[in-house]
Amino acid sequence: MPLGVDAIVTDVARRIEADLPELTAEMTNHFLEVIPEFHHDEAVRQLMVASTSSNLVTILDMLAHGISRDGISVPPAAAEYARRFAQRDLSLEALLRAYRLGEHRVVQWSLRYLALLDLDAAAVIAATQQITQMVNGYIDQVIEGLIDIYESERQRWDRRSDAARATQLRAVLENDQLDVRAAEELLGVALRGWHLAAVAWVDADVPDAERHLRTLPRLLRAAAGREPLAVLADDHTLWIWMSSAGRPAADPRLLAGQLTEYPRLRVALGEPASGLPGFRSSHRQAVRARAVAETARETDQLVRFGRVAISALLAENTDELRVWVVGTLGGLARDDESMARLRDTVRVFLACGGSYTDAAARLHLHKNTVHYRVRKAEEALPAPLADNRLDVEVALLVCDQLGRRMITDDPA
Question: 188 φ, ψ to 5°?
Answer without folding.
Answer: 75, 25
